[in-house]
Here is the input.
Amino acid sequence: MIFSSDNYSPVPQQVMDALAEANNGYQPSYGEDSQMKKVRHLMQTIFEAPDAAVYLVATGTAANSLALSTLCEPWQTIFCSPVSHIHEDECNAPEFFSGAKLTLVGDSDKINPTELRKSIQAEESRGVHGPQRGPVSITQITEKGQVYTLSEINEITRIAREFKLPVHMDGARFANALVSLDCTAAEMTWKSGIDVVSFGGTKNGLMGVEGVIFFDPEKAWEFELRRKRAAHLFSKHRYLSAQMLAYLENDLWIELASKANKAASLLIEGLRNIEKVDFLVEPKANLIFVTMPAYMHRKAFEKGLEYYTWSEIEGVSDDTPVVSRFVVDWSRSLSDIDKFLEIMRNAAKKEI
Amino acid sequence: MIFSSDNYSPVPQQVMDALAEANNGYQPSYGEDSQMKKVRHLMQTIFEAPDAAVYLVATGTAANSLALSTLCEPWQTIFCSPVSHIHEDECNAPEFFSGAKLTLVGDSDKINPTELRKSIQAEESRGVHGPQRGPVSITQITEKGQVYTLSEINEITRIAREFKLPVHMDGARFANALVSLDCTAAEMTWKSGIDVVSFGGTKNGLMGVEGVIFFDPEKAWEFELRRKRAAHLFSKHRYLSAQMLAYLENDLWIELASKANKAASLLIEGLRNIEKVDFLVEPKANLIFVTMPAYMHRKAFEKGLEYYTWSEIEGVSDDTPVVSRFVVDWSRSLSDIDKFLEIMRNAAKKEI
Amino acid sequence: MIFSSDNYSPVPQQVMDALAEANNGYQPSYGEDSQMKKVRHLMQTIFEAPDAAVYLVATGTAANSLALSTLCEPWQTIFCSPVSHIHEDECNAPEFFSGAKLTLVGDSDKINPTELRKSIQAEESRGVHGPQRGPVSITQITEKGQVYTLSEINEITRIAREFKLPVHMDGARFANALVSLDCTAAEMTWKSGIDVVSFGGTKNGLMGVEGVIFFDPEKAWEFELRRKRAAHLFSKHRYLSAQMLAYLENDLWIELASKANKAASLLIEGLRNIEKVDFLVEPKANLIFVTMPAYMHRKAFEKGLEYYTWSEIEGVSDDTPVVSRFVVDWSRSLSDIDKFLEIMRNAAKKEI
Amino acid sequence: MIFSSDNYSPVPQQVMDALAEANNGYQPSYGEDSQMKKVRHLMQTIFEAPDAAVYLVATGTAANSLALSTLCEPWQTIFCSPVSHIHEDECNAPEFFSGAKLTLVGDSDKINPTELRKSIQAEESRGVHGPQRGPVSITQITEKGQVYTLSEINEITRIAREFKLPVHMDGARFANALVSLDCTAAEMTWKSGIDVVSFGGTKNGLMGVEGVIFFDPEKAWEFELRRKRAAHLFSKHRYLSAQMLAYLENDLWIELASKANKAASLLIEGLRNIEKVDFLVEPKANLIFVTMPAYMHRKAFEKGLEYYTWSEIEGVSDDTPVVSRFVVDWSRSLSDIDKFLEIMRNAAKKEI
Here is the structure.
């Protein structure tokens, strides 16, 4: 049973059906398809942002890198967390697309406002010599499974705005965050001062479709040129549109994220009752980080669980604490969770 | 009836079925899926190249730009035709990915060996001052619908090799060329001196999947890093793999291209019998360029045909010659061709 | 006797004196030196442009590449002559700094207005697919020694402005052109529609100092950041300023160019009387291109003349026409010219 | 009296004389001058490295950025100190030239071996997703005025070599470090495992000339292309060569640095006896960082001293500790030091 990544999961039947339907007949290429018009409209409605520019790309890294490059200049620096995906997991793509560098704020997954202010103030103190201040990027939910509250987002964007810096939200797990906060998409974004969102679809049920939403459409054309120049404009774009349309229609995206978060919360509850399991941070959505003794991992793996650990479990003593990540995606049934917990409860019993 | 672009066409049922099958259960991400292993093996078999490095990306521009950037250095120049896709239709993507510039060889879609030699010799005559010689890139079938014969490919690669330059083939319509030449994939590529191929799938029946094949795997790891850094590595990679697998299995790709070329040849034959229609170049596959008087285009559009013209047809005199492009994709039925020709025959009759 | 390049020449005593004077005491770094204030003011006065932003860099390639990158976006194309220095002799520096590509207009050193319009119109006809229209760059005097007249410059800039494109002048030999046209610096630039000038100093008597002048200072700060990021901001900037100051004061720059052009015109006159010498184009300043039979070159070289030929002179028959370039720099005495001509007149006599 | 920066200082008479001498007659351009041959030979002799590739550029940022870009790939990360010049003071130039990112090691100016190992190990743990390991760069003397001992350099290069990473030394103040360590240039570089050096001349008496030395000449040609493409190859290169030649001949560079270090050590000694002055780190060469109460700075400025403070001295209470930097360049006389110290001793007396 795999809890390694939401990237390992399939897509729901509605998406398959939408693809089948979209496959009938001919459609203009490069985003001129009729489905994209609907996606744009629906996204604007959901975000209560009738002027927003809405685009689709196929990878989260493309969404982030293209969005950020549109927000900044190559002599600037992007403020982000040291564990942010854009810093750790995109092989210099944000730097490649933007030319800018990244300034790592604090040492946590959630950016602390005081540290953000300090980091921003530390730049542009050397005239033309240091990098200039660029956009702030936060990840919602964070790479460690935490969720910024609306007031936390507001505090960060208020600081950015003081320095006239735009704010980007890496929403690879946007839906899971929204469900966790139980607020509207507008509230979690532009109403809280966010300028551009990478609106993740892939991890929550699509094959490889991400939205990029600019609440101010001023830079829309620049984004289109950047997307094409980076080879991220699809000729048969309708197959991206159709998936995103199915995702947005009838609140499927919310339904999928609710299912994932619900299953995750059962998993969390269950783990909380196993003595040897400690949470690295308090999980708020479908990403769970725990510390457990090495022997528990070994037993769990033996029983067929699959997930990532942050360090080796072989060749260490039984009680060595080892961090692991469990990801609960939309496709997990509640009986999967039960089985997972049973295995873990048994694994906790060292003697067995 | 749309003859505008093979990018407007749907995908065949086999591809839909393959997606449905691939959607069952969980699969490792980022190219570690089981389908990719099969794709790699099948591609190596088809190309009789057991050591070839095989990768998938989602757009033709990505395939070309990543392949070329792996073959060259940013102080070099890439030799290509002035109507090549990499020069005209990729919004500086090859330059963005590689840093190199493009040297336009001659003035035709097919690169002429004499002009290629002249272009190559003209560089590196100025030491460090001019750009250095880089890869040669040819498009098969060309952007004007012509096909390089095996001996033509050999002549070009022989010249490149004299100067120790690698050769890339933009095979956005690779299958159509192969069917046209009636040779093997190996013969059209490495046996004729090609080093790297962009193996098009999208225009011939996939949703957005292209192969990149390095016959010498030496730069495979560099390609993987470049792909990731350019945000073209898919997390749910299995959906690319599954499509390509269906495309390769049972020679579906050959079947689709044969169908397209066959329908195109009927269209060509029919057009040849219409007095007012002149072929811009002799078409060899499924791309057809003709010159017709403006009034014919106007009448054809009135009757519901859709295709691109190279200049305005409104506001010009009836007899103004206007170039147009007809693309016949795999999904065209023979009765579509009949209808197209009937409309054109009627359109030719000026008086009506 | 060397007529190979104006880059081989020394600098006049006034520049040496200025360096010596500037070497007294301490001066703020990075362009804050007192000499730079004077340079800025003097340049604004000379160009009758009190708001112009004025900067110094040390190489012509830096001046051109930084200026052009400030004028364009990486998805654009720069319109220039196929023999322009930015295309042929800067090892992809303009592409490196700007990300843009170059579109070669026509086949001459002087851009023809009709061909320019055609080239501009040919871009942006493919939406996001092709490169977007970017700046026009002309070289004054051209790489072949011709000079754009004021009305020619005006015609080019008028076309550019129709398409809202800025115009850059590569003035590596700005002074020689100005002397040739006998007009004001303002007339040859902003009064004729030029937006930015690379104001060459190096070829006309400095050690390595070039001005970059933006008549509209709007992008001044961007230029400063680009200059620093490209490592072209000098810490001990005073040594650039002092040279440029000496160059501008008392019209030294005009005096030097007048001397060079005068000597060149004597050379041209003398060559015109040698039967076997043909001018490639009619020279207007201090760059002279001629065709002569190979044996003449061989004899001239034997007698100690040094200059570049465009093809090999060894191993070809005596009468093979071979193109050569003679550059007459500011330091050439009239007796040098006499000696040069005497050698050539003798060389022309085949039998000797 | 200015102690703000060694970039404010003049150049010694020997350099002026060398320029005057170099100004006689004509010389081939772009590094083919006769002086450069001597520079290359002398540098190879000084470094006991007969095969070393030796180049000149005009700014320290160019030396660093070109050297580092030659050592790495754009998907790598460069390991450096968080206060390194390449990170803080080059406006993203290293990123621009190399495409790579920077990983900040520890929190000190001197890289700690344990932290270096940890930083290196933390990369390449995520396959293609994170940046790949690239070169290590250390600054000698550091930006805070410390000097790596030979054994410290050896320890760092040994770790780098374990991971097959090259090591670059930013030697903007190379001579000051060498004098401080009293060792040979070879010992401080390749004998201690350094691969490439930015050999600073500007801060120690040149107008703007820096060497770049590759002990292994394998990448020499790549460096030459990178230098040209970055617009850092000088046409009238002899004026760089002549300066560097004067600098190297008769050990002038050592003499100048000895003078600077000697004067600095007197300054340090004097400051040590002023009660209110605390050293931020123990100074080892000609860069001195101290903490003093705000009122002392105010009084020193009133008396005409000039230097940088790290925070505002106006609007803070008298006793607020404020960090400042004193730079002692080669041109400082011992009587300047006496005057400086007298002012400081008086400034220390709060009541006055």
Chain A is about 40% helix and 15% strand. Chain A touches chain B through 49 residues (CB under 8 Å). The two ends of chain A are 21 Å apart (CA to CA).
